[in-house]
Each structure stands twice: as C-alpha cells, then as structure tokens.
Specification:
3 helices, two-stranded antiparallel ribbon, single chain, alpha/beta, four-stranded parallel beta sheet, 25% helix, Spore Coat Polysaccharide Biosynthesis Protein SpsA, Chain A, 25% strand, 6 strands
C-alpha cells in the first residue's frame, strides 16, 4: 500500500486580513504550512504541496518534507486536481489536507 498526501496551500487568506496568507504565518516559530506538511508526513509515504501559482512561478519558498511543490488553480478543486497530477500512479490511497489546519492528528 502506498499512501500520499496533498497539502492544499493555494488560498489567499483574505478573510484573515493579514499581510500574507494564513498558511505562511508562523505559530511557535514555524509556518502553518510546515506544521501541516509534518502532520501529512506522519501518515503518508509522500507529500505534494499545492501553492498559489504566482509563488511557484516566482520561485516557491522551500517546503521541507514535500516531494513536490506544484501550482494551484483558481478554485480549490483545480488545486486538488493539480496535486493529484503530481502523485505517482502507484499510490493506492491519497488524502487531501488544507494547509490552514495545522493541528490535524
């Protein structure tokens, strides 16, 4: 069995009103995104992170623990589809997790 996780981090976080999307804010010295990737990594053999296209096109920030970083789409479904395209065909289970929810267990 091969389990892969897609961590969707393509949102703009407009409702939060911060100067950056919430997945890039820090909690306890680490980005929310990094906490979420760690949570995904704890149950998956591989992790694909989906970021806003402008970040990927402009040189995405490093995402420790991710096998791949891909550009998201206009809607969440488009971003999940982009993540799925980066998951190996041999994967038997794929889980999708929102980066803005780092306390997954």
């Amino acid at each position: 069995m091969s389990v892969w996780a897609i961590v969707v981090a393509g949102g703009k976080g407009l409702r939060l009103g911060a100067d950056q999307p919430k997945q890039f804010l820090e909690i306890a010295g680490r980005r929310v995104l990094d906490w979420s990737v760690d949570a995904a990594r704890s149950v998956a053999d591989g992790v694909v992170v989906v970021l806003p296209p402008e970040l990927v096109d402009g040189g995405a920030p490093p995402v420790p623990g991710a096998e791949a970083v891909v550009a998201g789409g206009a809607e969440r479904a488009d971003s999940v589809r982009a993540g799925l395209a980066a998951v190996p065909e041999a994967a038997t289970i794929v889980v999708v997790h929102d980066a803005a929810r780092p306390a997954a267990s």
